[in-house]
Design brief:
The complex is a heterodimer of chains A (about 110) and B (about 230).
Chain A (H helix, E strand, L loop, with lengths): L2 H24 L8 H23 L10 H17 L5 H17 L1
Helix pairs in contact in A: 3-4
Chain B lengths: L3 H8 L9 H17 L4 H11 L2 H12 L4 H12 L2 H6 L12 H7 L5 H10 L8 H26 L5 H22 L3 H20 L4 H21 L1
Helix pairs in contact in B: 1-9, 2-3, 2-4, 2-9, 2-10, 3-9, 4-5, 8-9, 8-10, 11-12
Classes of the chains: A mainly alpha (about 110), B mainly alpha (about 230).
Chain lengths: ~110, ~230
């Protein structure tokens, strides 16, 4: 293994574990019925939503080459599939991959 | 030690009809292929997924390596994008804390905190007795973590067959799956508002400060949603 890559992996895992571990440690004094817990619950959902929006609108990696229009179309169509399929998670997910692969050819 | 019955019950949750297994596996197939293209060998690729087990963090690491960023820059970039794991942990572990369970289980299993496992636990914890929830969680985490490792392995060896269009398809799959899960989880005013405000504010803050956009979007959006929810209750 090259040293640079191994160091990068270790640094990445350390930066990731830090948030997880601090979260686990600071959970000890928090009751699930407390206001603090409810607030953190809102923060968690909002942060995840912000991450999802950023991944779609300002992507890194290969998605950056797909047009905004094709990404937006895939999101809207997948949500329609999600509701039509009575909130099944698998159908819209597979649909999104197939439609993105097809749309990226044309837009 | 770990209660086998609840561990297996958690492990089997990925076999359900709405399981994240397919989406998660496909995302890590994309990561495996990406890492190979970056010059990682198979050991490094699998090692990376095993130790990090967080998709956005792995993507950021890959991007940072591409532009030759320093280790400190990689640490900060990954920490920023993965800091969401802190509120996720704080909003999950109090549901599993039980005085009869040893603390090492909590410290060990915090490694499994990732969107898919977190959302599965959030939607199922009420059906599990509080004392056994940590074992159930370790089961879910082990299952999703295994899929991530297997996906990376498959992606590494199938990278030659994955053209750009297929990679795009695999890349969009993850946010779409999470988006659907979040919409499905939006059953209270607070959660629904948190999701909507996070989706809107995250990109807006990106124009002001790209590095802090996820955290600021989450902090501001989540706090507003919490306050509105509390006012609505009272």
């Amino acid at each position: 293994m090259s040293a640079n890559i191994v160091y990068a992996i270790l640094v990445t895992s350390l930066a990731t574990f830090l948030s997880r571990f601090l979260g686990a440690v600071s959970s000890e004094g928090i009751k699930e019925t407390s206001k603090l817990f409810k607030w953190f619950n809102c923060l968690a959902y909002a942060t995840l939503a912000a991450l999802i929006a950023r991944t779609i609108i300002f992507p890194v990696g290969v998605l950056i080459d797909a047009s905004y229009l094709s990404r937006l179309a895939v999101v809207i169509l997948s949500l329609i599939v999600f509701f039509i399929s009575k909130k099944n998670y698998v159908y819209p997910t597979i649909f999104s991959a197939v439609s993105m692969a097809i749309l990226s050819n044309y837009f | 030690m770990i209660n086998k019955e609840f561990f297996l019950k958690g492990y089997k949750s990925i076999l359900k009809h709405d399981s994240p297994a397919i989406a998660l596996g496909c995302c890590f197939i994309a990561i495996g292929a990406l890492l190979k293209n970056l010059g990682f060998n198979i050991q490094e690729s699998v090692f990376s997924t095993m130790l990090t087990y967080a998709l956005p963090g792995s993507l950021v690491m890959a991007e940072s390596l591409l532009v030759g960023a320093s280790l400190l820059n990689i640490f900060l970039a990954v920490w920023f994008v993965n800091a969401r794991l802190y509120p996720m942990a704080v909003s999950l572990f109090p549901l599993m804390m039980h005085e009869s369970q040893p603390k090492w289980k909590y410290y060990f299993s915090c490694h499994f905190i990732a969107v898919s496992a977190w959302l599965i636990m959030k939607s199922n914890y009420k059906s599990i007795p509080k004392e056994q929830r940590i074992d159930y969680w370790i089961g879910i985490g082990t299952a999703t973590w295994s899929i991530a490792v297997i996906g990376t392995f498959i992606g590494f060896f199938s990278s030659e067959y994955l053209n750009k269009d297929l990679m795009m398809g695999l890349a969009i799959l993850n946010p779409i799956y999470f988006l659907c899960m979040m919409v499905g989880a939006s059953k209270t005013i607070q959660v629904s508002l948190s999701v909507i405000l996070g989706l809107v504010l995250g990109p807006i803050f990106y124009f002001l400060t790209p590095e802090w956009s996820i955290l600021l979007g989450g902090l501001v959006g989540g706090s507003i949603a919490y306050l509105i929810g509390e006012l609505n209750v009272s």
